[in-house]
Amino acid sequence: MQHAVGSELPPPHQPGQGPAAGWAPAAHHPGPPHPGAHQGPALVPPPPPSPPAAGFTGTSPGPVPPAPAQPPAPQPPAPQHPPVPPVPDTTGHVPLPPGGPVAVPSVPPAAAPDASATTLAVLLIGPAGAGKTSVAKYWADHRRVPTAHISLDDVREWVRSGFADPQSGWNDHSEAQYRLARRTCGFAARNFLANGISCILDDAVFPDRPVVGLGGWKRHVGPGLLPVVLLPGLDIVLERNAERSGNRRLTDEEVARIHGRMAGWYGSGLPIIDNSQLDVPSTARVLDDVLARAMTSPPSW
After folding, report:
1. What top-level class would CATH report for the domain 120-295?
2. Rounded Cα distance, 215 and 199, in Å
3. What CA–CA distance (Å, rounded) separates 53 from 56?
């Protein structure tokens, strides 16, 4: 058998062996095939089988089973941060204890109470011109504990339109206005005292009207209220009244009538201060002495 010139001889054929590995017939012809050479089909490896379609099992078609659920991938733990403390609200609501009835102060008999450093509720009684407002303001200003001055006349005059002035006549309207003002003062006193602030109230309470006067104050403030009567002589009251102006000034007849009714406090058991010859600071000091005795032995009223 002849081969093309220059072609490489095939390896010798060994019995039971196929062609040498790596040698393919006709693969060594760099040019066109030699005329007369037998041309067989080219050995092309078959393509790899394509994967079956999704859900195809090789048998009769049927419903495609769902893909198995994959468990969620574990998430890394969230970083732990220390809790942030709340920012204090410096302008928010300040809780206050509610005001209750004022109890009678309990002072051991052997102790010497200091009225100027004790939380107290005082009712200063007296006629117009007795100096109640001046003494109450001074006493409140010079105590060693916080003290509020609550004037019933000032609270009454909060009402502007429709104001019922008792100087023009005592009637149902003026009495209702008086009762409302006294109740308002009583509520204020209880709230001040519940928060550690003493208070002194001043009012022209008449002894011949106990329900309107002391009884009402006891209901609104409590049995711990300490009443003290400020009652100078009639001439002193007339002189002080003459120095007033506006609706604070009364006629001499009205001043004398009120002073006469106030004289009914003598013999009532309430402490009475005659400040006819006392200035305001001296009267305040006497008031402290009277209150110290009243704390040790509260008056019955």
Report:
1. alpha beta
2. 18
3. 5
